[in-house]
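Hi, here's the filled form for the chain we discussed.

Project: internal
Contact: R.S.
Residues: 335
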Amino acid sequence: MTFDAALDGTLMLSDHSTIDEAVAQAGRYEDHGFERVSMGEVTGWNIVPVLTAIGRETGIGISNDVFSPPSRSPAMLAQTALTLHEASDGDYRMGLGPSSPALVERWHSGEFEPALRRTRETIDIVRAVYEGGKVSYDGDVYELGGMGYDRQVPDDPPAIDLATLGPKAVEMTGRFADGWVPQLFTADGLRDRLEDLERGADLGDRSVDDVRVAPLVRTFAHEDGDHARSMARQMVSFLVGAYGPFYGNSVAEQGYPEAVEEIRAAWEEKDTAAMAAALPDEALEALAAAGTPEEVREHYRKLAAIDGVDAVRCAFVAGMSQDDKETTMATLAEL
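And the returned structure, exactly as it came back:
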């Protein structure tokens, strides 16, 4: 089975004590043939300076996972995107997503709902800024007008990718966004959602081929496959049980409702060992690429073979050493 997709990489900024270290890791991805590198923004660094440094000091494309509208106004998101586009010589893709109630309400002091409507209106406003001139918008969530971006807008403004999970959200992605970055999907679950993406593209009178699909996969290649799976199990179970409700809901809908319920119950007791134990081997194998180098490459090949997938985004597992990361990047470079 061949691998006919691009490789994207993801930085775990919590693993890096300085911005220079993060830039160096992005350079390692580039050296291994990865096309793009992205990173998340939760409650740590503001990632815009980090992305700027990577854009200026390397040749790899840059993305983010993800900016939530309550963290920045739509106009500021447009300004940020255009600035990062300039910093990367036109190779930036902006990642947007509804985020989670905990982050929006407890960190940004915003209101989570109406999450999808807010995301849709944010896309509208960003695109209005891209068009140049004064921006006027009267929506259900946002209302602004009378001012405009005061620099020249490039002919090829940054693409907008969405990180969405549910049917309606993915349909919205197909209708309005330039890319989709799903996470924690089995191959069958991804195929089902790609039908929602195609329906959205049809509603928007667009081609789904114009939407760059890049599933993000927790990845750990190690000669001791059991060691890699053990560490990945801890990470995946934490995402399912503790990282907001949406990942868990999605995994449950993909065929693992009992496991999700058990993982969430263990999280209530903050029993991370029990969370990991509750994740079935079958689910781990389907949701993550963890094991021997060949097992990891096979997982990537299967995802790339799904009609509609354009790239696979490697995300490391918490606790991996730098040697582990080097082995994993080298493993994927052989695809």
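Let me know if anything looks off before we file it.
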